Amino acid sequence: MIRVIDLHKSFGQKKVLQGVNLRLKHGETLVIIGQSGCGKSVLLKHIIGLFKPDKGSVLVDGVDIAKLKDDELHKVTRRFGMLFQGSALFDSMTVGQNVSFGLERYTDFSQEEIKELVKESLAKVGLIGIENLMPYELSGGMKKRVGLARAIAYRPDIILYDEPSTGIDPIRADAINELVIRMKEELKVATLIITHDMVSAYKVADRIGMLYEGQIIEMGSPEEIKNSDNQVVQQFIHGKAEGPIKNW
Amino acid sequence: MLGLLTWSFNLLNHKMFPIAKSPLYYFNSFLQQVGEVGLLFFQTFKNLFKKPWEKRIFIQQLEEIGVRSLPVVSLTAAFGGLVFGLQTYLGFHRYIGPGSETYGGPIISLGLSKELIPILVGLMVSGRVGSAMAAEIGTMKITEQIDALFSLGADPTRYLVVPRTLASLVMLPCLTIYGDIIGMAAGFFYNVYIMGVNRVLYIRNTLLYMELWDIMSGLIKSAVFGVIIALIGCWQGLRTEGGAEGVGRATTRTVVIASILILIVNFFLSKALPADI
Ligand SMILES: Nc1ncnc2c1ncn2[C@@H]1O[C@H](COP(=O)(O)OP(=O)(O)O)[C@@H](O)[C@H]1O
Ligand SMILES: [Mg+2]
């Protein structure tokens, strides 16, 4: 349902993406791994239409989103739910208002129904009765979960995660992994996850792709990635400082 | 159109001046920024009539810009009126002679309502509110909240810029008329109660020479200042980059740019608006 074709993007002199190709199918979980700063977030932001490609295209169900007008683009982006790296909760709003943001604006549900949906979304991520708290009152892990509740409240077809397990302790990170798997099973959504955490990559992925120097250099099932004979991939998944990857 | 202009200048810039920053570079980046503001203005205007309207933010901003600026505006208008009253008294007393001070009334009202109060209000509000807009939106930008808005299908311009611009457009004239009243009262107070100018004549002269248009033209100006403040604040907020430091830069820039623009635009508006109708 999503196809990225020969995507190029530079910021000034800095070439970040140099011909990324990938494909995300219905109901599939694709994990993109790569070093910090290699352009993973930039790739995601192209997929939701925040950045326009210098060259190449992003197709959502065959439609090139860079060619859409603002209003049409917003309709497409509403099919995505995105969990941001730092959660990106609106800090002037309560948890409840955060989660109901999209529902209130772009659906015809009544206030009562919205309340129910918010409750349900929060319950799905294991949070109960926190609708009236403000984001600054939450821990990092809770923020991520509220961010996820906000992303799924809308019933998206596709959920995008930007480093869901970064910045929280290993136990909470694993809980997030469980959530990712549960979301996929319960909501039957396609999932695209970006991470440099190999533990979660192996745990949740149907396929793993590695982004390196602006391209997807390897793509395959977790088994295939583990047994890859590409030295760059081997260095990354084993987390060694020695190897072909030098720039950091 | 503006975008095209900006773009072509960019192209020129990259090819001709890769490293050295020539005067043309600064001219380019100036044009580019004018282009950005113009585009934002255009988008804001386009989004004015589109649903969903952000009523909650609009009302919140009305309160923030209007109600919360009252203390500052009261103080500046009062002291502006006092000092203006003082100098007018001195002028008449010294150059025209005792007894003529009652003509200070219309001069004070004219100067206050057409120039001093709109400018004071504009400068105060750009310091108080423009900077706050830049800081708030800038923080949202660096914490990806703007991206989150976008990902939820909300247009950042419609959601953030439109309600702020509208609220500012509505509230600045309100603050100005309030400031007019305070300032004129302060001028009256200084002349009549401190310097002992004849109260009846002072009021009579004021009413005789004051025209509704004097007040109206001040209100028109302040409405324009309102749009300037909100647009500059939002623009700087939206282009914030580089962490907390970037937010700081955006706020100071907002105050500087908005204040200078207000003074420049004020001159041209004074020139363009007819003296009376
Ligand atoms: N808006 C932007 N303007 C300029 N450079 C950017 C922007 N966004 C990202 N970059 C640059 O692109 C590179 C990749 O960033 P990012 O995708 O955030 O990395 P990561 O893989 O850690 O998510 C970084 O070097 C960053 O400096
Ligand atoms: Mg990132």
Please describe what this structure looks like.
The complex is a heterodimer of chains A (248) and B (277). Chain A has 248 residues and is α/β, with parallel strands linked by helices. Chain A has a single domain, classed as P-loop containing nucleotide triphosphate hydrolases (Rossmann fold). In chain A, 38% of the residues lie in helices and 25% in strands. Chain A contains nine helices and ten strands. Chain A has a six-stranded mixed β-sheet with strand order 6-7-8-3-9-10, sandwiched between helices. In chain A, α3 packs across α4 (111-124), α3 (95-106) runs parallel beside α5 (140-153) and α4 (111-124) crosses α5. Chain A starts with a strand and ends in a 10-residue tail after the last helix. The model of chain A has no long low-confidence stretch (mean pLDDT 91). Chain B is an all-alpha fold and 277 residues long. Helix content of chain B is 83%, strand content 0%. The longest helix of chain B has 39 residues, at 104-142. Chain B is elongated and about 70 Å long. The mean pLDDT of chain B is 91. The A-B interface holds A 45, 48-50, 70, 74-75, 77-78, 80-82, 84-86, 88-92, 101-102, 105-106, 150-151, 154 and B 52, 136, 139-140, 143-145, 147-155. The complex binds adenosine-5'-diphosphate and magnesium ion.
Short recap of the structure:
The complex is a heterodimer of chains A (248) and B (277). With 248 residues, chain A is an alpha/beta fold. Helix content of chain A is 38%, strand content 25%.
Which descriptors apply to this entry?
heterodimer, A: 248 residues, alpha/beta, 6-stranded mixed β-sheet, 9 helices, B: 277 residues, mainly alpha, 10 helices, 83% helix, binds adenosine-5'-diphosphate
Question: What's the helix and strand layout?
Answer:
The complex is a heterodimer of chains A (248) and B (277).
Chain A: E1 2-11, E2 14-24, E3 29-33, H1 40-47, E4 55-60, E5 63-64, H2 70-77, E6 80-83, H3 95-106, H4 111-124, H5 140-153, E7 158-162, H6 170-187, E8 190-195, H7 198-204, E9 207-212, E10 215-220, H8 222-226, H9 231-238
Parallel strand pairs in A: 3-8, 3-9, 6-7, 7-8
Antiparallel strand pairs in A: 1-2, 1-4, 4-5, 9-10
Chain B: H1 2-16, H2 23-47, H3 55-65, H4 70-96, H5 104-142, H6 145-151, H7 156-194, H8 199-209, H9 212-238, H10 243-272
Helix pairs in contact in B: 1-2, 2-7, 3-7, 4-5, 4-7, 5-7, 5-8, 5-9, 5-10, 7-9, 9-10
The structure holds adenosine-5'-diphosphate and magnesium ion.
Adenosine-5'-diphosphate binds at residues 11, 16, 34, 36-42 of chain A.
